[in-house]
Please model this.
Amino acid sequence: MTPAEQARAELTALAALATRVGEEYAETIAAIADTYGAALRAGGTLFFAGNGGSAADAQHLATEYVVRYQSNRPALRAVALTTDSSLLTACANDMGFDEVFARQVEALARAGDVLSLHSTSGDSPNVIRAAQAAKARAVTVVGFVGHSGGRLKDLTDVVLIVPSDDTARIQEIHLAIEHVICGLVEARLRE
Model:
């Protein structure tokens, strides 16, 4: 296969996966947008977390809400739990890496907030602990996972499982969906 053929094949497969997710999960996507919008309308905060590429997505997504996505509007309350290097390293050193997100949820989140967790496997221990900490505080947990959903799927209020075993494709679809959700939230908050 030539590089051009490989590029075409990979993008075609990505488009097919996006189409499948759109057909199978449109109602779930709308429900997540409703969940985010209701929390923001009530003065709540959206918290985002994940590891690796999903950590980068958490930062990206929080920025879309705080700064802007497609339209100029008032800032919305959103925080990426992946950005405070002093906090992350202190917690990892003193309590273990499994606690880096849970500790922040314990300190910052309150009932009515939303914790959006991205994990391609759904089994990352620090993401699982964050979900548990959120549930103990009446914080809504939204999960973006892949594969079979892992243990996280059972700790969420709303879960979207991308039907793939390819980590890169799962992350690409997660980010695309979160962009769709951000656009829906902006539109609903204008109503």
The chain is about 55% helix and 15% strand.
